[in-house]
Design brief:
Elements lengths: L14 E4 L5 H12 L3 E6 L3 H15 L2 E5 L5 H15 L4 E4 L14 H29 L3 E6 L12 H20 L4 E8 L10 H8 L10 H13 L6 E5 L16
Parallel strand pairs: 1-2, 1-4, 2-3, 4-5, 5-6, 6-7
Helix pairs in contact: 1-2, 1-7, 3-4, 4-5
Amino acid sequence: MSNTTPSSASHTPRVVLVTGAAKRLGREIALALAGSGWQVAVHYRGSEADALETVAQCQALSGNSAAFDANLNQEDAVRGLLPRVMAHFGQVDAVVNSAALFEHDDAPSFSFERMAQHLQANTGAPILLAQALHTHLQARGAQGAVVNMLDQKLWNQNPDFLSYTLSKAALEAATTMLAMGLAPTVRVVGVAPGLTLTSHMLSDEKFAALHQLSPLGRSSTPADVAAAVVFALSNASITGTTLLVDGGQHLMRFERDFSLM
């Protein structure tokens, strides 16, 4: 049985939970998966209107989608998330851990509290969701996959966003360990984008200039990253590794984070 489309034999639509899918890159991933036939559980925290808009767009593509709120810094909320998705759809076949806390700190401003917040949301929550998916799939006698969204910053480090980078480095290590510990029931794959979307810290002109700083002359687009996630979920031979989707930005040296250059 393929661990990519565990429900294909019974012609039951595949179901994927995408965390942080209300807007930005998470939404692009959700829409790409819906366009590929997945039924999408849209996780959000606080952005209900945006989440419902994502749900409506996914429904137009795949026929079934629903929104689920949860605070990924709270263990009980994380542990309760997958059962809620299962109750609505009847099953879950994959999880894409796209939600992330991204708050600035550095060596002088580092604190235990800030590190703990990033580790809970960015590392602990994805591990718990992978654990829950594994238990669910074993009970069904099925196989599935987890995609963890990482960051090219891990291969091109700078001193900015210290706690965020630590949490993503831990998630990259967890991707390998989970791939070993949850096989053959669950494949676990990392996807690491480069500079993909602008933010309030960048003007449009600055973002356009930074986006071109790569060996290929362009970094990743939302469509590039979403396509990599679809590929990771569809290729039954990939596990325990990371796809860098960044135009080669990880091959260059940046002294600061893009937002502070």
